[in-house]
Amino acid sequence: MMIKSKKLFLICFISVVIANNPLRVNHNRLNNNFIKLSKISSIEFGSLSRVAYTDADINGRKYVMELMISAGMDVKIDEGGNIIGKLKGKDNNLPPIAIGSHIDSVPEGGSFDGNVGSLSAIEVAQTIWDNNYTLNHPLVVVIFQNEEGGLFGSKIMTTGLTDSELRLKSSSGFTIKEGIERIGGNFDKLQDARLKRNEWTAYVELHIEQGGILYDENLEIGIVEGIVGIKQWDVTINGFANHAGTTPMNQRNDALYAASQYVQTVHEIGKNTPGNQVATVGIIKSYPGAPNVIPGKVIASLEIRDLDEKKIDAIYNKIRLSSKKIGKKTGTTFQFQQTINIVPEPTNRLIREAIVDASNDLKLKSKYMPSGAGHDAQEMSVICPIGMIFVPSKNGISHSPKEYSSPKDISNGANVLLHTVLKLDEQYDQ
Fold this sequence. Notes:
Blueprint: H1 2-19, H2 27-38, H3 55-70, E1 74-77, E2 83-87, E3 97-102, H4 115-130, E4 139-144, H5 152-158, H6 163-167, H7 176-182, E5 202-208, H8 213-216, E6 221-227, E7 229-238, E8 242-243, H9 255-272, E9 278-280, E10 284-287, E11 293-294, E12 297-306, H10 309-330, E13 333-342, E14 345-346, H11 349-361, E15 366-371, H12 376-380, E16 386-391, H13 407-427
Parallel strand pairs: 3-4, 3-5, 5-16, 6-15
Antiparallel strand pairs: 1-2, 2-4, 6-14, 6-16, 7-12, 7-13, 8-11, 9-12, 10-12
Helix pairs in contact: 1-13, 2-4, 3-4, 4-13, 9-10, 11-13
């Protein structure tokens, strides 16, 4: 009973301390840094193009490193090309608390994806430095390389990259191996970038939602329950190619006609199954692809995302059964070949609670929600507990020049990140 009472007292004490903590990020500085970074692009107007390994990416990396040095951090580029800044703590033997994101973009995308989390993490460090505040733990700010291409930077730090992944050509035109060398990494010593289990105390990432839930519900903060699992399949539909002018309608084995029903089936099952899952057909290729030939073959895709892997499998089985019925009606066959299997990754309960408390202390409206997109945090769960904070995306738009989060929302998220770090710093290792 005495132990429980002490623990309860500690938690209440920490909450009071944080609620009364005057530390806040510098809104104007954060917004100005954001504007400057947004201008570093390979195209002059409109959308942001700062694809990993391009000159624009290198210039953006140089800019954020300058900000990190100004924030009092010891800064280095690890062997995998990730930028790592570190503020010393009272006890530098403790594993660091890590925060960060990425600054690379999709081609002709928006200015907010990745940038918000990266600059907010730097601003958190700057705020701590400016106020002569020293955490118990060291604080690490990490800017992962090539998140958009496939979480390559975070993978290097956790599970490593295969030879085939290193040979992949990125959107920049460089292979991953060439890109690593180009941004200051060391391909010959990639293994040295790997982190051991529990080498970090925790990793917390601030990010724009990239969906419209927070914006539609007029909420300020999303507490991410977990990052969804993703499973993808190549779907081959075989019919029989024949002359479009001489083959009666009732004698056709039209693969594209079967595919049209398949697309509708995927949509209906995804929509009508209770929950937050999504099911998508993003690719349709018809062969031989002539206007006067009945399609004899279609290559399509299937992607299903949800926080529950069993639910993903159940939805897939429904789609496969329905496709078999479509095949019988249309004289076609369906073959499914799985290509991607990313398991769902729940966030850590203690970190979620810290985010909730920080949001409440700052009087910000919040809700629990899943992340429908993949993030570096997903990879970092291999080595430490993870948490994620979302801020609203206007109209739910992302990976688009119209992507937008207000300066106020960004500052709100940065302050929640700051106070989450303060809370975790007190709670861990007590």
